Amino acid sequence: MSLAADDPEGKARFAAFERGLQELGWVNGRNVRIETRWSGGKVDDARKYAAELIALTPDVILASGGAIVGSLLQLTNTVPVVFTQTPDPVAAGFVASLARPGGNATGFTQVEYGMASKWVELLKEIAPRVTRVAILRDPSVPEGIGQFTVIQSAAPAFKVEVRPVDIRNAGEIERALAEFARSDNGGLILASSALANVHRDLIIRLAAKFRLPAVYSFRFFVKSGGLAAYGSDSIDPHRRAAAYVDRILKGEKPADMPVQAPTKYELAINLKTAKALGLSVPPSLLSRADEVIE
């Protein structure tokens, strides 16, 4: 798992996976044994734990996050891997194609890069005065580059100037946002990554401190106090992954199991945060929201 062991979002993802297994007759400690590792978004830990798990000669590994999948596939081409929260497994070289993975990995994609343009649209709809947008991204993962490219292409239509801000740790995040906030009419878009998820409380706090309207990639950011989010359901793929694990335990091969795309995208808005920023959310936007936090 790419999050920390005490992260509520991580717990919810793992619980969904475990429930999915139970519905299929697999009960941890009875007829299946689950070994769990939590990297907390740290690449070095992901590599270390990947090696630990492979050394246990498991029948299958669930890998939540692209960095973890990469670490695993560098070490094995035989142990079956079912991945979730992985944005572009073909470009990353994890699978040959979505329809026919061809190797020892398959699973569930996190996002289609093209939808990143929706984040610009959402930010301008909720905060029309924004003309400058910082795009916080992890430069070490493909989605940081892919999503920024889409946002950069969409920006002129919304009359905003975008600036990529590479983040690697908490200190960089604080310095970058403090510098960006020195000028007026700024906004923030947080590209998806394990690093962003791990540091979400810090980023949300800084966005409030510097009065930066911000759009995020998952609903759980809004539950933590973020302004708005549009993205795929982060819990359901882990429940669905249980079915793939079940099929592999019964003899099927990942090579023959197609990679599946998200089935639902969610719009969430935090009205309390909007009020604190002096923003009035359009009724048309509220009517489209899947969740409104008041």
Per-chain topology:
Layout: H1 8-23, H2 43-55, E1 61-64, H3 66-75, E2 81-86, E3 105-109, H4 116-126, E4 132-137, H5 142-154, E5 161-166, H6 170-180, E6 186-190, H7 194-198, H8 200-209, E7 214-216, H9 219-223, E8 228-232, H10 236-249, E9 265-270, H11 271-276, H12 283-288, E10 291-293
Helix pairs in contact: 1-10, 2-3, 4-5, 6-8
Give me a quick take on this structure.
The protein has 294 residues and is an alpha/beta fold. It is 41% helix and 17% strand. The protein has 2 domains: 8-109 and 234-262, 3-Layer(aba) Sandwich (Rossmann fold), CATH 3.40.50.2300; 113-232 and 266-293, Rossmann fold (3-Layer(aba) Sandwich).
CATH homologous superfamily placement of the largest domain: Response regulator
What's the Cα radius of gyration? 19 Å
Helix-residue proportion = 40-55%
Order of helices and strands: HHEHEEHEHEHEHHEHEHEHHE
State which percent range the strand residues make up. 15-25%
CATH third-tier fold name of the largest domain: Rossmann fold
- Across the major sheet, the strand order is 5-4-6-7-8-9-10
What is the mean pLDDT?
Answer: 93
For the report, how would you describe the main beta sheet? 7 strands, mixed
Structural class: alpha/beta
The low-pLDDT segments are: none
Question: Ends: how far apart?
Answer: 31 Å
User: What gross morphology would you assign?
Assistant: elongated
> How many strands in all?
10
Task: Tell me the quaternary state.
Answer: single chain
The CATH architecture classification of the largest domain is 3-Layer(aba) Sandwich
Tell me the domain tally: 2
CATH class of the largest domain: Alpha Beta
Q: With helices defined by DSSP (H or I, 4 residues minimum), what is the helix count?
A: 12
